[in-house]
Amino acid sequence: MNLDRGEFDRLFGQGIPRADFLLFDRSVVYEVKEVENLDVERQVRKLAKKGIMATDVFNQHFCNSIINALRKANRQVSCTKNALGLPNALGLIILENLIPEKMPALTLLSVANQMMEKELPSFEGVLCADMINYLEDGTGDKVRLVQLMARGTPDSERLATFTDTLVKNMCSQQSIRFRPNVKLDAAHQLWHAEADGNYKRYAAGITFAHEMKDGCG
C-alpha cells in the first residue's frame, strides 16, 4: 500500500515525514532509499591521502550520504508508525545500490551493519540490494547480492520471512533465479587509486559458504 496516496494526507500533519509503503496487512512499514548520487571518484581522491583507517571511520567519510539517508529513513518510519497507530509494525529500509561497477552492495552491508549496532531504533532490518552488479569468487560462482542486515531478535526473524517474499518478487521481475540460502563466508573490497589520488578501479573478493551458480541471494 503506497503511503503517498491522498487518503493518508489527513493523518500526517504539515512537516511530518512518512515512509513509502505498508505491506503484509500493515505488518511492515518500509522506506526505500536508492544510492545513485554518491560520487565515488571524488570520494576516492579525497580519502586516498589519508592512508589506512578503521572501517567505521572510512564509512563515515566515504558513505556519509548513505548514513544520512538511513537516519532520515529511521525518522520517516518512526513518524509513520505513530501517525497510523501501528507501534508494533516491523520497520524496514530497502537500501538499493544503483551505481555500476564502482560500488556494489558490500559497501551498503558494511554501513548498514555499523548503523544497526548504534542507531536506527525504528528498524528491525535493512535490506541491502544490488541488482546491477555481480559479485564473483575464484570458482566462477556469481550472485547479485541482496541481504537483510537484522538484529537477531524474534521481530527481525519475522521480518526475514517477509523480505524473502520481497526478494523473490524482485528476482522474478528481472528473470533472475532466486537463491535463498546463499551465505558469504568472507568478503573484502578495495578502491584502487593512482599516485595522484585519482580513482583507478574497484575490486572485491568474496567466498561463498556453499556451491551455487548464477542467481540472486
Structure overview:
The chain has 217 residues and is an alpha/beta fold. The chain has one domain. The chain has 5 helices and 10 strands, in the order ββαααβαββββαβββ. The protein has helices spanning 40-48, 55-62, 64-84, 105-118, 154-173, and strands at 21-23, 28-35, 90-97, 125-129, 135-136, 142-144, 146-150, 184-193, 199-208, 215-216. The strands form 3 sheets. Strands 1-2-3-4-7 form a 5-stranded mixed sheet, sandwiched between helices. The longest helix has 21 residues, at 64-84. The protein is globular. The model has no long low-confidence stretch (mean pLDDT 85).
Q: Summarize model confidence as the mean pLDDT.
A: 85
How many structural domains in the coordinates?
1
Structure annotation, total helices: 5
Strand elements, count: 10
Order of helices and strands: EEHHHEHEEEEHEEE
Shape: globular
As residue ranges, the low-confidence spans are none
Strand order of the largest sheet: 1-2-3-4-7
Helicity, in percent? 25-40%
Q: Please give the radius of gyration in angstroms.
A: 18 Å
Distance between the termini: 25 Å
Query: Which structural class should the secondary elements be placed in?
Result: alpha/beta
Which percent band covers the strand fraction?
25-35%
The largest sheet is:
5 strands, mixed
